[in-house]
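=== Structural record ===
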Amino acid sequence: MYQLEQKKRNDLDFLNFIYKNKNFTISQVSKALKLTYPTSKRLVDDFLKKKIILQSDEITHTSGRSSVSFFLNTESLYSIGIQIELKKISFILIDLLGKIKKEKTILNLEFTNKSFTEILNSLFVEFYSEIEEEIKQKILGIGISFPGIVDNKELKILDGINLNLNNITLTDIFRKYNKKIYLENDANACIYSEKILGRAQEYENFVVISIGSGIGAGVYINSKLHHGNNNLCGEFGHISIDYFGKKCNCGNNGCWELYVSETAIEEELNKTNIKEFSSLFDKDLNKNFIENYINFFSIGLSNILLTFDINNIIISGNLAKYIDKYKQDIKKNIQKNIFFKNYPLNILCSNLNERSSILGAALIPISNYFNLVNLD
């Protein structure tokens, strides 16, 4: 029994190593994982047979010795990501390093609690049918990103306030594919993409603020993704920044997302003759809007900082590229508060833009296989 458990641990450690070290020798495996050379060779041989790794034609020269090197076969396995948004569902197929092999987005969807599973099933059947049979056999799993509260163990959407969806189980839709299925809140999905591919690869503590039709926050503390006892961790879009403000679908007044989300920006656009987000976020043209936006954004972010005391904040979503040029203004605004006067705040905008959440969803099966992101 002990030997089986040890082998399983060695396999997981090895998979984690080869993902993070794309080219390596057996000696390097042995040294990094503190294993004997024969054990390391056994690991290499096992995963060569599975074609997870391949032998390089190049010879590595170290300390006067010549060694055969190996590398991760990025097309040995694939993964599918699904992103559910307001009136939109997107699908993506990626290889092990997140390279997109196929993607599709369906816009202007209208779904209700009654029709949602039928629509999702129909769209996924169409997407999946277009994937080559050879690749289908190599798909590790399917990750689903949803903007709301989910039960990731029961594959159940508990409450999607902005989408008017609740108490929907997804198990029946995907059972026939015989793949591992993962359901995650959209901001938590961003944790995977930012930690594996994006801005947070070197961070042990960070928060991702995901801005879409609403706002969510993914929280990564002490090298673990934090869900909370009831999967409510990160619902910062529904903290009140104005008790007498706008009425939210959640029943609260003045929720943060009513002032800084994409939905809020679209409402602002409708009040003007401006058609594009880029023009609205031009300070020379819209000074009052920008000052108000920075103020609203700073209030919500201050609440997150006071809650978690985390220095690294990553902003993701389509708005990230517009907010990017106002990062320092937001930082200065926050640091006016005595608590943050000398606070070492690091604000980054995701380089994955609007793909952060769907890439994260697709990376969940890969993370699970290669032991990349730890869960609380």
Summary: The two ends are 26 Å apart (CA to CA). The first strand starts at residue 23 and ends at 25. The chain has a mean pLDDT of 93.
